[in-house]
Design brief:
IMP_DH-rel2, alpha/beta, two-stranded antiparallel ribbon, globular, single chain, IMP_DH, 16 strands, GuaB3 family IMP dehydrogenase-related protein, about 375 residues, oxidoreductase, TIM Barrel, IMP dehydrogenase activity
Length: about 375
């Protein structure tokens, strides 16, 4: 249904994760028998959670640990890990700097050149540790480092930008990435993103994407929506792109997973994204809160170090527990940020969904008061959902 914005323009209404609620059906399922397994590029995982390719979230040790726990972590190949032989003192400086000095420091630190030897080394370290070597670059980085990543035998290659499209108009003489040719040429599955519309999602799948990431600007450290005015609230974006995924599957017979990326903090957020049609989620700040995370209790976005227009900030998230507690429990917090897998299984059981595919079919209701109704004491005392 369109809404008249003014005499010259009609618009659609869009909804964020906090605007919706999941509605129980006529049956329930024991959470112990729910199945949360999913597959990405032929790699099967028990937990439909990917840790974001952000320097405060994933390093080599985290990538290995996430793989061991049944999830997946993506290493940023244009970040600290590939610019410095020893990232530890660099990460210490980022954690110590004050708010006013943060952006200049990041611009300084990320001006150091990316070393292709370190790209090969980091991929090798993840594989040697028994982890899944999933790595990420921007489209420009894919042009520069694609052959290096292929030679290093990474398992998965994420090509990420604020917005990725199959048609990019660049300056004369500047190379642009042909996504279809790139997906065909690379020896490993290529995941493309980000997008928020049916049309672009369908085009990325037609270009050969092994999965598509959905989300522009909802991330905890992202300021793109304020700086650029660009984005669609996540629930609507995921639902629109899920329609593209389903139509593509009917036409091609190929299922391309949809990954909701950004704005996802709690187990309930994960459940809602899957109900809207996502096959998995990508999260940053919840994993940055792990005691083992490289960010030392801080989290910042991939676009933050831009030398011309930083679109992100550094947020303090603290260290609230181990990576295992956050993913698998036991939970020691009451705010929905621990035992994310347990939350998903319990929600599936409550909604009567045995599988993720069934979870994608549950009833959804627009419910802006879902998170505030009756929560006066929690809000006043900063407990549970009132934090």
């Amino acid at each position: 249904m369109s809404i008249e914005l003014g005499r010259s323009r009609s618009v659609r209404r869009a909804y964020g994760i906090d605007d919706i609620a999941l509605v129980p059906g006529s049956r329930t399922v024991d959470p112990a028998i729910t199945v949360t397994r999913w597959s990405l590029g032929g790699i099967e995982r028990e937990i439909p959670i990917i840790a974001s390719a952000m320097d405060g979230v994933v390093d080599v040790k985290q990538a290995i640990a996430l793989s061991r726990l049944g999830a997946l972590g993506v290493l940023n190949l244009e970040g600290i890990q590939t610019r410095y032989d020893d990232p530890a003192p660099i990460l210490d400086r980022i954690a110590r700097v004050d708010g006013q000095g943060f952006v200049p420091l990041m611009q300084e630190l990320y001006a150091a050149p990316i070393k292709e030897t370190l790209i090969r080394q980091r991929i090798g370290e993840i594989r040697a540790g028994g982890g899944i070597a999933a790595v990420s670059t921007t489209p420009a980085g894919a042009i520069r480092f694609g052959k290096t990543v292929a030679a290093a035998a990474a398992d998965l290659f994420f090509v990420q930008a604020t917005v990725v499209s199959t048609e990019h108009i660049g300056p004369d003489g500047q190379d642009t990435l042909d996504l279809a040719s790139f997906c065909e040429a690379m020896p490993m599955p290529v995941i493309l993103g980000n997008c928020v519309t049916y049309e672009v999602c369908l085009q990325l799948m037609q270009a050969g994407a092994a999965a598509v990431m959905v989300g522009i600007g909802p991330g905890a450290a992202c300021t793109s929506r304020g700086v650029l005015g660009v984005g669609i609230p996540q629930a609507t974006a995921v639902a629109d792109c899920a329609a593209a995924r389903d139509d593509f599957r009917r036409i091609s017979g190929r299922h391309v997973p949809l990954i909701a990326d950004g704005g996802i903090i709690t187990g309930g957020d994960i459940c809602k994204c899957i109900a809207c049609g996502a096959d998995a989620v990508m999260i940053g700040s919840p994993i940055a809160r792990a005691s083992e995370a490289p960010g030392r209790g801080f989290h910042w976005g991939m676009a933050t170090p831009s030398p011309v227009l930083p679109r992100g900030t550094r947020v303090r998230v603290g260290s609230t527990g181990s990576l295992e507690q956050i993913l698998r429990g036991p939970a020691s917090l009451d705010d929905g940020t621990h035992n994310l897998l347990g939350a998903l299984r319990t929600s599936m059981g409550t909604l009567g969904a045995c599988t993720l595919e069934e979870m994608q079919q549950v009833e959804i209701m627009v419910a802006p008061s879902l998170l505030t109704e009756g929560k006066v004491y929690q809000k006043a005392q900063q407990l549970g959902m009132g934090r």
